[in-house]
Specification:
It contains eleven helices and ten strands. It is an alpha/beta fold. The structure holds beta-D-galactopyranuronic acid.
């Protein structure tokens, strides 16, 4: 039923190479993955900054007795040396104390500079044996229409002008998640093969992009990311490219506007973004009342990305024939999904499902 729905909506096949040949082996997929990166960068998010030439960090504060003495909380300033400039931003590290083995971790792209946060129950996360590294997205580039004139935006576009495929803020936030990952890679206490990137809503879109591009992330988690995130664009309910590019033009590259009212001509759909992470674990979550994001279209995207996993010899999305109704959880394959009841939100229910899934997969 849902495969028929993909055809009916005219969703493009993620396994069809640009010149019309079908991907049939791993080598083809490696080529196809590069094509998809080019496509998503040139048409939707813009091309990322290059890697820093060098980086260092400075400890801003340390609290060894956080959460009843069970967690060490530090605030760190990451200092990046870029080609023509420098850029620094702060992030938090919360690592459980006295663990007898390396711990899995989250890199959380956060709305606010606060610990804990309503979208990040630091204590429960650490009690579950996870570390969490978090940064506030405003510290990279402010989330405003004119935000690119500040922070990393000012470093990238000193003249205040962007070319049509120059990146917007989502790509810059995603790039920053990879810089936090550079730091995490140096830590003895972290299980480097079990690191997740996670974000909610606009930052769920960002997490999908960060994990899609950076293969060091083993789990890529999108909480209620919706339009231009996990949800299939063609025939979705709620938000469309017309709305999102009007309210948030700075999130994307300028080329994306060309698809306003012209979504059938998109040379991709959002399952291409999910597929970039294959065969690593992608987790999409929705909320029943979040019709602006459209749970059905988020679910459908998991269905559409699944053939890439199968081609690579992994279980993709193990799902039912119908759209889920509420409280449904799909944890069997490398694509996972849950539908929480309620509104657009990043709650403890969501965190608990993510931790449950990662523990099961580790
Ligand atoms: C909405 C936007 C969505 C979603 C959300 C959020 O206003 O239309 O795409 O990202 O914001 O980030 O909370």
């Amino acid at each position: 039923m849902l495969n028929g729905e993909l055809i009916r909506r005219g969703v493009p096949d993620v396994l069809m190479l640009d010149h019309g040949k079908k991907v049939v082996c791993r080598e083809d997929w490696a080529k196809r993955r590069q094509e998809i990166i080019q496509l998503l960068c040139s048409e939707e998010y813009g091309f990322p900054p290059s890697q820093p030439i060098d980086w260092s960090y400075e400890l801003l504060s340390e609290e060894k007795n956080f959460c009843a003495g069970n967690v060490t909380l530090t605030k760190i300033l990451l200092k990046l040396k870029l080609k023509n400039n420098e850029f620094s931003f702060p992030f938090y590290s919360a690592i459980p104390n006295d663990m007898d083995k390396k711990v899995p971790a989250f890199v959380h792209i956060c709305f606010r500079d606060s610990i804990p946060d309503k979208y990040m129950p630091t204590e429960e996360i650490c009690d579950n044996g996870f570390a969490v590294f978090s940064f506030c997205y405003h510290d990279i580039v402010p989330d405003r229409k004119d935000g690119l004139s500040e922070g990393l935006g000012a470093v990238m576009y000193p003249e205040g002008k962007r070319n049509p495929d120059d990146c917007g803020t989502i790509m810059l936030w995603a790039w920053a998640a990879s810089r936090v990952m550079d730091y995490v890679q140096t830590l003895e206490s972290i299980d480097l093969s079990n690191i997740a990137v996670v974000g909610h809503s606009r930052l769920g879109k960002t997490a999908l992009l960060a994990g899609g591009l950076d293969e060091r992330f083993a789990y890529i988690i999108s909480n209620d990311s919706g339009c231009s995130g996990a949800a299939i664009t063609r025939e979705k309910t709620g938000e469309h490219i017309v709305h999102i590019t009007k309210s948030f033009p700075h999130w994307f590259c300028q080329n994306y506007v060309r698809y306003v009212g012209n979504e059938d001509h998109l040379p991709f759909d959002q399952h291409f973004l999910l597929a970039l992470s294959a065969p690593r674990k992608v987790y999409v979550a929705s909320a029943t009342l979040d019709t602006w994001a459209d749970p059905d279209s988020e679910y459908l995207s998991c269905v559409a990305a699944s053939p890439v996993y199968e081609l690579l010899g992994f279980k993709g999305f193990i799902h039912g024939d119908q759209y889920p109704k509420g409280w449904d959880t799909y944890h069997e394959g490398n694509i996972a999904y849950h539908l929480r009841t309620g509104t657009h939100y990043f709650g403890r229910y969501d965190w608990n499902r993510y931790m449950e899934y990662i523990k099961k997969q580790m």
